[in-house]
Amino acid sequence: MDYDQSYRNYREIIDEHLKRLITESEPAGLYEPIKYILFAGGKRIRPTLLLLACESLGGNYKGALNAAVAVEIFHNFTLVHDDIMDNADLRRGIQTIHKKWDMNTAILSGDAMFAIAYKLLSQTKSNRLSEIFTAFSQSAIEVCEGQALDLELETKFDVTVDDYIKMINKKTASLIKNSVKIGGLIADGSEEQILALENYGLNLGLAFQFQDDLLDVIADEEFGKSIGGDIVNGKRTFLLLRAKELTKDKDREIIMRVFNKDGIDASLVPIVKEIYYRCGVIEETQNKVKFYTELAVKSIEDLPKSRARDMLIWLANKLCERKI
Amino acid sequence: MDYDQSYRNYREIIDEHLKRLITESEPAGLYEPIKYILFAGGKRIRPTLLLLACESLGGNYKGALNAAVAVEIFHNFTLVHDDIMDNADLRRGIQTIHKKWDMNTAILSGDAMFAIAYKLLSQTKSNRLSEIFTAFSQSAIEVCEGQALDLELETKFDVTVDDYIKMINKKTASLIKNSVKIGGLIADGSEEQILALENYGLNLGLAFQFQDDLLDVIADEEFGKSIGGDIVNGKRTFLLLRAKELTKDKDREIIMRVFNKDGIDASLVPIVKEIYYRCGVIEETQNKVKFYTELAVKSIEDLPKSRARDMLIWLANKLCERKI
What we know:
Two copies of one chain form a homodimer.
Chain A: H1 3-21, H2 28-38, H3 45-56, H4 65-85, E1 90-91, E2 94-95, H5 97-100, H6 103-122, H7 129-155, H8 161-186, H9 191-218, H10 229-232, H11 238-246, H12 249-259, H13 269-279, H14 281-299, H15 307-321
Antiparallel strand pairs in A: 1-2
Helix pairs in contact in A: 1-3, 2-6, 3-4, 3-8, 3-15, 4-6, 4-7, 4-8, 7-8, 8-9, 9-14, 9-15, 11-12, 14-15
């Protein structure tokens, strides 16, 4: 079986487990939106990574399924609350919960998803439960801190590339890092093995976020991403913050207009895109994606050879080409 | 030392432990509101009950401090999010977080408090960690379900006393029940002892909520509660729902105006209050408070005699007279 097929299988196993677990229906005002978002077709990247991490250290994926689903539900909770804060209308091509229902429903169903995630995690059989809970909770705190930093980033004038790195470290990389760590803990791996997985997850998370910023600018329209959304919204991505450092004169003026969200519309997208290429920030970001992906792959090189480990390597490369 | 003094001591221990633990300050947009609400002077009822429950089964309260503080932080998280949903301006005499800052800050600092609560719980030393986490998570889910039922209760026409009981069972009683259960689990009590504590907590929680509804109508102004707030807001309390069943003719018309939030103001409060007395719902509620308090006390009668057990009994009586 090739890796693409294996990945589809993992997704299916995760989806089925989710469906088996989320059976409550009352109060409907709580569980309808929860099912709506959970079954809107996520890529299940974090739970797949968790299962693979567990298997790569010799564990049985079945013992990690509750934890995998917990991580996915937690991730969806953050999406629901982030969408309120960002006032987003759409998620995965469908209306966000606060648009389809209302804000109270979105706050409360998010909170309940957070609680459900922990309940499922509690059902994990492991003699390292305390470490598992600490990792999950530490990550949950960091995701909140990362979101607070992100909100700060969008409003403060004095923002640097360093602030951005700190933010994505917490908002994006932390949950991926701790997902693989939890997989390793369930497999009862050694300290060094778990450290290897953490390194893999952290670097993969960073690569993933740089790639996300990049795709907004250079993805093909057919890929399904609308091009230049970040530019039009003046979102302070790595590209924008780094271009602010690299440009001068007329170019910098345009970059500052984006930075200050000052009269930008779609007509500016090709101009900014050209500046990004010219000042070298596109290449720099591509190099960062490559660098962090390689670091991720290298981190788990010394783990015992197994199909799961090789699939983690495949998945890192795949994710950062975004072919899936 | 008398029980009043003991209770003050427990509160102090809890406050000090909270202060020792919540030391983060960055990002300020996240931690300032968290400290603001946590140190606004709560009564610390739930963590005190948790510590006493632990001691009543022979445990050392020090081993239960992290869990006690976790329960208090979780409770405060629910207040922050409930205040958004209820659009409340004040809490404990100070501005609510979404009023003093903004809604995003209130959503996010609430989420972070939830995560911090779990992180502290993870630091509890116990060989029954899985049960502790399950109890805490089950309670968190029920609190969300209870809040969803409460929102439903306020908008549906066809609402009964039974819907109300179901709601307070989840929204109020569940966390009190599970707080004492967790205390008992940390002390590694027997199944029967823990069941006794759960029964105590559940019934105390119910008594507490009935008393809360009652106080809105009959408390002295000097007690610090504004009288009749629930009536003016058309809040569907036990008193209102039961009066709807008990009244007829002109009285029922007035009760239905409150129920339908139809042109009610402060001038109606003494009239509704008189109806409540006349139809017997005041006495009925007082009897319920007494009934559930006695049930709570009786539930732990067979626990080994100890100062902690006796203080749990004292606290139940005290809370339901609301002298503290």
